[in-house]
Structures are given as structure tokens and as C-alpha cells.
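=== Structure Prediction Worksheet ===
Name of assembly: unnamed complex
Input type: mixed (protein and possibly other molecules)
Chain count: three
Listed entries:
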Amino acid sequence: MDKPTPDKAGEFFDQFLDDYYAECDEHLVSIRRSLVTLEDEVDAGAVDRTLLDNLFRSFHTLKGISGMVGLSAAEQLAHHLESYLRGLREGTVILSETGFEALAAGVSILENVINARRQDQAIPPIDDIIERLQAVSSTQPLASPSLPKQETPEKVSVTTRWRAEFTPTAELAARGVNVNSVRARLQEIGELLQAKPIVKSAGEIAFHFVVSTDAGESVLKSFEADGLNFEVLRNETIEKAKASQTVSTIGPTIAPASVVRVDLDRLDELMRIIGDLVISRTRLEDQVNDLKCATPPAVWRPLQETSLSIGQQLKRLRESVMRVRMVQLGEIFERMTFVVRDLARESGKKIIVQLSGGETEIDKFLVERIMDPLMHLVRNAVSHGLETVAEREAKGKRSEGLLSLTAATAGEKIIIKIADDGRGIDRDLVLERARARATARGLSHGASAIDDNALLDLICSPGFSTRDEADRASGRGVGMDVVKRAIEDLGGFVTLSTKMCEGTTFTIELPLTLAIAEALIVSVNGQRFAVPQSAVREVLEVESASTKVLENNEIISYRGRVLPLLRLARVFDMDHQRGPTFHVLVLGEESNAVGLAVDRILCQREIVVRAIKDPLAQTRGIAGATELGDQRVVLILDISALREFALKSRH
Amino acid sequence: MPDENKMNNILVVDDSPTMRRMVITSLGTLRRVKSTQAGTGLEAIERLAIEPIDLMVLDLNMPDMHGMEVIDFVRSHHAYRDIPIVVLTTKGEELSRSEAIAAGANRYLTKPFDPRQLADVVGSLLKAS
Amino acid sequence: MEPFILFELAGTTYGVRSRSVQQIEMIDDVASVPNAHPAVEGVALVRGQVIPALNLRTRFGFDKIERSLRSRLVVINTGSRVVGMIVDTAREFIKISPESIEPPPEALTGLSGKYLEGVATIGERPVLILNLDAVLDLEYELEAAVEQS
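=== Predicted Assembly ===
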């Protein structure tokens, strides 16, 4: 799924196609609804102004966004529909039977055009309908323009007009009280006649709403906690307000936006609460089970069923919230390509960017935090890794440097690679500088040859830079030490592979941070561990006598193959007594499968995954910790590290 | 820019959420830039009142307050009159470029827009202010 | 005058700056971490965070004792790290003026001396002020050993 650097705006905006279709659907639904009402007003003379305004705006927006995604047929058609609406609105055109039919036909063709693009089919022709729309748009002008219906005066006599003043503040906004919510609440209690911003004497911004309502003062009082003040408008004041209505009149309820941006902190809070709920639910289940013997079945069973269904509902709730948190990596990859292009232009280098795996989904929490380290590695690759055209040609390389960004998920991990085919990291130079720094600090540094891991450690030590003056591209005050630290803080790690003249690859592994996971709780030597269930393919019960030893490996036969066993007790160096039977968790696929041997599988639980952040307690094979309902801490196994261990020990 | 570490807060005003996302993503290439968004003119003015805004990218044809009215309001308020405003409006808008500029817009771009051009325009206005 | 928290370990009184102490807990449950440093007894859950529990007796080379009702987990927060230290008991809170902290005597450097910032005398009783960076850095010992050789 390699994708070249987008060089046209149209391709850049392809990433928004899903949003585009979603928004088109919304407008088309609202347009169809308006058309039903509009049909009744054919030849009626005056048409509801707000209806026309809403239709006009929908076509206008469809025109704008269709242009952005390069769907010019929809853009043109929406433009002509908009023009017809403008004619109606301005009173230069009468809403005739023919006009309405052209409008309705235009809408259905517009819908077909958008759907054709969505399904990659041929775009239907639009020339005929555009001609029809042009014809109806040039009808004889109407004597008087249509008027907004809401200004019909009879409502004044039966209700009171109030003027509400609302002063927005950050505190109110944080509580969800803002100009939109206030407006919506006022629309619930009456008819909103006006809404406009004002500047108070101290320069403070506020909003004035004029609302006509039969609600009593007690109702209005309830608004005061949210920063609203009311004042009765006398009749003459109304006239004044009308005269000064330079801002605008308000239509009926404006269609609520379907996309809500949620502050990540609020989502985190939500996840935390769900995490607590999961733990409480686990405790509840234990307590319900404890009651089983002491309670008549007729009482106990409904209790247990309720507990189980709460469990199911919590699971769905958690999954929904998790989905909200997931975003595609593609967006930040695209951002990187822009940065690379800028840097390439500045440095006179030629660079091809290859992206793959942009559709990989990653927790939004991670995206925000991985952005800077990734950006830094990309900048480093461009400014230090990749050579100039002349340098590359002198080395017999292709004149364009290659920078590839790839992302993929592997089990519970997400793997991001940043690779360049540039000059590679100069080990000798790094060592030399490391020695110089060590000498300066009165230490000795005796190493003479270093592998990639040691090299990475050196360049990631605080303050280390392979250039005396960090240039603009790699500067930004962030060193490799910060990059490494940032990734490790996220529970991930970086590895390096580099070869002189051939290039450098940084590989970042991150947890998917599924904060809650299904896990099997197992016991080994009396200690409990949690195993993420997503890693477990099958569970076997094995008789101790049936294992064989093959070249220092303990094996069992499994589905006609040999399955090497990895004894957790051995990995963790535990003093272990083997029982007559034990349980094996089959990890990995087919030929790479490994059997993780534990004493017993105790139960299946939902666990809240917590990272172990301090290096004192970090150990290979442990991914984190969790608490079970009984308040006891249980370590979570790092399955991919354990599999790695098993594969290594086989050699 | 006097303060090297300052994040510039850009207010993106458009009634189309898709369009706002497009604009925000296009601005993502700029350094030290964050964004906040508003779907209506009133909301835009509310944002001004409650958080510091360094630049506005403003659509013209919106419900409840036309973009030109937003410009008028911003330009008449002593605290906000210097905020750079980039008008980003759909081609064929009845208002001409010169009218928007006369009302106080700093730059006038039409949709469909080129993401690079928008980022360049915003970047240079931020640098200049 | 700076507030310190005092705790007992093998009959000696130690002090740490109160601002480095996040909280003091009864020791609930510590899950042992395989292959960890011998002084790391395991991990404990404190305010939803999983932190290492460092047995200070083992760390300083004293004999390990059974945990009792008096045992405490002194949770250190250095800003970048949160680590719990298992001590025999902890309960006192005292103010010490910086002038009354003297450098550790030579004779002490053999044992826990290298983890000390200084010694303060409160009344008749000496209080050993810990250098937390050194205590929490398990590689410190190795580096120090290498430097001496």
C-alpha cells in the first residue's frame, strides 16, 4: 500500500472523503425534508424565508466541499441549485411547478453524482439538468421579495419579549454553557427573534438574545446560574431592537453538527471511570458467587443474571469509547510529508517519501504524544541521514533519497518504522565523540567496537549530538535522548539499525494501549499472572509425562506438529514443583507457535492495564500490572517478549 | 516572533465540519500552531472572548452571522482589531475580494483552496504580526 | 527550617525531605517481579499507579525482616519517578534547619554512607539524611565500585 507524496491538493483532500460523504448525507437529508415543505408553497407567492435560507446554505456548503475533494460535477450542480435558490430568496424568481420539479430533479441527480463517486462508478451526466435549472432561474421577477415568516407581528401580543444578556467565560464553556447551548435553551422556551454580539463598556464581549416567550419569570430565573440576565423589552424597545437589527435574524433550530470534538482529557476521565466500573463489577461478581450457597436459587439466579448483563453492557460501553479514541496514523504521516517537502526544498535535496500502513489505527492518546518524537526522527533522517543530490550521485546512488514511513500492528503492539537510504550513522565518529565527552567528565570510555544497540544508547545519551551546531532541521531543542524517553514513557521502545552508506532505520514499538483487555489469569508457583487473551490461540491441558526433550528443548506434539514449550517458571527463575498435569497456552501462528507452560489457568477476567513506568520494576517479559477485584496486584505478561525469548533460546 | 516558544492559536470558522478539518489539517504543517474551531459567527466571537486568538480563518456564508459581520465586529473592538483575518470563501461568492479587504480582511482565498497556499499565507501573516 | 519525614530502619533513624514524599502507606499487597534486582520486592498499587517497592533493608545490606503492622511504604516522588521504599516504621514529621545537617562522617561511608547526604542531630538522636538519587539508582553501586577500582 505504498503511496507517493501527495503533490496535488485533490489527493491531499482525499483523506477527508469519509467526512465529506457523511456531511453530504446530512445536507441531502435536510434538503429532502425542506423540499417536502417547499412543495406545498409552490405558486403561493411568499415562501418561508428561513426554509429558503437553509436550502441555500446546504447547496452552498455542498458546492464548497465538493470542490475541495475535486468532485466538480457535484460542485457545478450545487452551484446551479444555489443560484436558483438565490433567485427565490431575492424574489427575482417565482417558485413555479416547473421550477420546483427542476429543483427536485437536480437534488436527486446531485445525490447520484455523490454516490457514484463514493462507489467508484461513472458520474452521471449533468448538462441537461443544469440547462433546466438555468431556464427556471431566469423567470419573471416577483413583485415583492419573500419575507421571513418569523417576523409576523401577531405573536407579540400573546407573549412577552425579553432581552437576555449572556457573557461567555472559559469556566462556563468548560461546563458546556456557551452561546450555542444558551441559544438552544432559549429556543426551547420560546421564539428566538434576535441574537447578536455586543461589546460591554469594559470591552467585554457578550451576546444579546431577544426571545418571545410565555414562560414565567421562575423559568427565566433558572437560567441565571448560567450567566444569563433577563430584562423585559417594552414595545418601543422592540421597535428599536428591530431597527438596529444589523446583525441578523435567527432561523429556527440550526441543524446540530454531527461531529463533536472531544477533549482528550475528558475521554481519559471516561476511560478511567469505566476502568473503575469494571473493577467494581468484578467485585460484584465475586460477591454474587459467594452468595450462591447461602441464597435460594430463585433469588440468586436473577441477581447473577443482572451482574452478567452489567458485564456485557460495560464491555460494549468500553468498546464504544475505545473506538472513539482510535484514529488513523495516516493523518500524521501526511503531515510528515509536508515537513519533508519543506526541508527538502530548503536544503536542496531530492526526496521521495513512501508511506504505508496509514490506515493503521492508534489510540488518540498515543498519536498526540508520538507526533513530536516521530517528527524529530523524520527531520533527522532528512537533515543528517539523506545526502545532497551531488553527494548521492558521487556515490552512485539514485539522486532522489528515499524516506519511508511504515506502520503496522503486530499483536498488542504497533510498529512504526522510519527508514532512509542515506549515509548511515558513523560509528567511529559517535564513539570518538562519546570518548571526548567521557574524558571531559572525568570518566573513561573503553569500548572500541559497538553494535547498533550500544550505538543507539550513545546517541540517545543526554546532550549528545553528532554535529556541533544543530542545524535548523534537527534543532528544535529536542535531542535523541528526549525522543527515546518520550517513546519509553508511552510504554514503547526504539531500536536502530544502520549501515554506512546504505541508510538508517529507526523502529518504534508502541503498545496499542488497550487500557482494558480480556485476560486469562494463570498461576505459576503460587503467583498469579495475567495473559492478554488476544495473544492466546488455544489452551491445552498436558500430562507432565507426555512431554519430550529434543535437543535441549522441551516439546509436546500439537496438531501433528512439534510445539516447543516455554516454562514460565524457568523464564522467571522460580523454584518450581511440577504437578502431574499443567496448562499450556498456545501463542503465535503455525510454525512459529510456542507453548507457554503454566501450572493452572484460574479464570478469565477483564483487566485494567497499568504500565510499569519506573525502571526499577521493569523486566523483560512483563508488560504491566493490574489489580483484580480482590485488590491484589497481578503482573501482566509481555507475550511478544516471551515469544522472542523462546525463539532465541531455541538456537 | 518575539517569543520563540509561543503557540499561535488559530480560530477556524466555517459551518462545514469537513471544511474545518481540511483547513486545520492544512495548517498542521506550520510550526507552533494550534487551532480552535467555530461553526457559526456567534461561536467565533465567543471563542475570541474566552481564549487568546492569534489569527482567524473565516468563511463568509454562514448561518446566523455573515462572515462580513464577524469582520465588522472584530475590527470595531479595540482588543481584537489587529487580529489577522484570512477570508476563505467559496468561489462565486457575491462579495468581491475588494469588499472583504476593505472591510478589514487581511487576505482573501477561495475554495477549493490549495493547502500549501493556505499554510503559506497563514504562516506569513503570523510572522508579520 | 525544612520539614523532613523520619523513619526507622534496623534501629537507625533516617530522614527524607517531606517535599519528596508523596504519601506514606500501610503495605497492602506487593506482587513480586521476577528477575528484578534483589532489593526490589515487587510492585505495589498506589493511587492507581504501579510503582516499584524497594526494600530499604536489602538495599542497605541489612537483614530482611518479616513485614509487620508497623511496616510502611514511603512513597517517594522525585518529579520524574515514583518509587515506594519499604521501611520498618515511619511516623514522625520534623523540621530541621539546613545548618544543622553535617556531611556524613568518614566512618559511615562503608555501609549506607554512600547513600547519605548528611547527618543531623535532633536532641541526642542522630538522623541520617538520605540522598534519594543515590538510593533509587541501583546502578550507583556498580559505578561507584568501578570508579574505585
